[in-house]
Amino acid sequence: MSQNGRERSPMSPWREGFRRLRRYPSALVGVLIIAGLVGTALYAVLAMPYSEAQKLWRGGEVWYDLPVNASPVWLDRLTGGQAPPTLKVSSRDAVTTTREFENVTIQQLILPFDFYYQQFPSELNLFLEADFTQRQPFVRLAWHTPDGLEIPLGARRIGAAERISISQDQILTRRLGLPPQIGLFAQDQSSGVAPGQSPAVRQGSYQLVLETVHFEPDTEIRAELVAYGRVHGLAGTDHQRRDLLVALLWGTPVALAFGLIAAVGTTVTTLVIAAAGVWYRGWLDAAIQRLTEVNIILPLLPILVMVGTLYSTSIWLMLGVVVALGIFSAGIKMYRAMLLPIREAPYIEAARAYGAGGGRIVLRYMVPRVLPVLIPTFVTLIPTYVFLEASLAVLGLGDPVLPTWGKVLHDAQTQSALYHGFYYWVVGPALLLMLTGLGFAMLGFALDRVFNPRLRNL
Amino acid sequence: MRQPLLVVKGLQTHFELRQWGFLRLGSVRALDGVDFTLDAGESAAVVGESGCGKSTLARTLLGIYRPTAGEAWFAGQSLARLQGRALKEYRARVGYVQQDPYGALPPFMTVRRALAEPLIIHGVRGRAERERRIAAALEEVGLGASPEVQESYPHQLSGGQQQRVVIARALLLRPRLIIADEPVSMLDASVRVEILDLLQRVQTEHGIALLYITHDLSTVRHYAQRVMVMYAGRLAEQAPVESLLARPQHPYSEALLAALVDPEAGNADQERQVPQGEPPNLLNPPAGCRFHPRCPKFMAGTCDRKEPPAFEPFSGHLAACWLRRGQ
Fold first, then answer.
1. What is the CATH number of domain A16-54+242-457?
2. How far away is chain B from the Cα of A356, in angstroms, using its nearest Cα?
3. What is the CATH number of domain B4-224?
4. Which of A110, A328, B30, B92 could cross-link with A292 by S-S, CB 3.0 to 4.6 Å?
């Protein structure tokens, strides 16, 4: 061994490549972005199991707690707004006074809450539950404003579980001259608000007073007042009261898995098939080449649209079609061009001379030689497939079950989110898609610069 | 006692030239009727210009090319009939040392990995057993079995070291024959002798037969017992080294000998007799003796009519030349 060789500790080309990669700041940024995305994906999967995410996304009672089309809280606060979040008061926090009579109990429940915001709530609902055996209890509702005004909200019998939609109360609307969720919180109209001008919010402590009359001794009444806000969480909600954060979080593992599986599935199989064609030549090579030439001119997106429309839009089926059509792609031609000279390399001749079989030569002697070029291609290919999945979802061919970024965009589009000014609805998923593309592109280009010159001196 | 290891009779390897995959344009007669016998433990050199079919001979004997006609027997087994397991078994018995040592090692494998490959292929399952044999082979070729060497990649080794690794690889499967195709022509002059000495040492120590293919007649004297001179896909002459160097019987051998560089400075301006012209086109070789268009002793009417058979002017000294007809 030469003197020089003794001093230098032997280092694998891979390790050496990654060591050189550290000199590219873009690679570092790319790795950080990808790490962030992977972290988000892990968090989503761990913190919110698949079944729970599905439940949150496909609906159920959870929706009742969320407002429609609420923008993210931080967005509102950042622009100096004071929009209310969703406020809930339940009878557990209520002040209760009970008066007993013969056969009848009269109970007064006071649900107090403070409202110090500059915008009105978006909706007002009261949920009532009563456990009785025969006679329904009775309730009379009254709204107390901070300045001592009392607005009666009517009286009714209570079922086992009931939702009183105060903001949908037509009579009250007519009486107040405003939708109830505004009228109940507005400053006095008599002080002269011109018609067409929006009233101002009266800030202070409100009370909803429920006077219940039950006819059975052990009846218990549970009440919950929900004043739906105009802001919600980190990502806001959509038109179906779904928390967009669920889709943005869960979209990350879905997008990464789709991109990764599609990229691995296509690049590795493409390389192995190209190597097999180059090694065995003859009819196998000819068949692979003709198949590739036919496949190259087939348009991927229309085929996917066709499959999605006629068969199923399951993301796994789409993935299967993408991989199947991606195997015989233009990459076969590229790898073939790289492998043809490698086929004639003396080390392959030597391998034959010591008895290596065809399969071993293809997998152990030809494929590893091209692998360094494959890595950057593979990394830059991941976001391509992520975008493809998003495009399919935007076209309405998203997976029916899974929440994905593309489906959020699709909903935003069909609900004319931008027209209505719900920018957060579009910007959230779009930003995540762009970050994905940016992260993988930055790493991929740096990898390209590190590994491709190596190919020349390998 | 002579014990033939490799017997070659009328071996031919032709390459068909085709256009559009089916139109036959003819065939290149790279190897066109070669007969020789190699004894166990013997070292023989094959000498000739580039393009004369030396490497084709090596590859045909290694089973990389299928012979078009003729036969070769290795330890009594016919090569043409070797299939599957028997072919693999044969490949373990024959080692191969190539011209370009850097190209001969997979660039992405460490020395250890590259050496493990033939063992894995030939079913040496135990890792410890493999490690032991790799270490022994590396010791034998003078590289030492330090982990540093074993973990090196080919590009971290010098040309001479790479060729030692290649020789170690050829020795790993305990071959009976090593085919060395121009093993030193791409190495620095300073290490050529070391590598040839190494080949000779392992050859004599293990009683391995060596087929040493070279275009350099000057190294033949020290490293081979017998010489075969090849021209245009045929053997022009074969003889023990001393006999050939002392009394070449074929005009082509004479020309080769004359072309040897004389280290004596005083003889530098001496005229040398170098054969005119180029080696013939093997797609359409000349009729009769293939050397006749370049031969200074060309006899019209004989040499261009019929191919000369191998005459034996001296015992064990064969020459395919009409000049030796009567002797």
1. 1.10.3720.10
2. 6
3. 3.40.50.300
4. A328
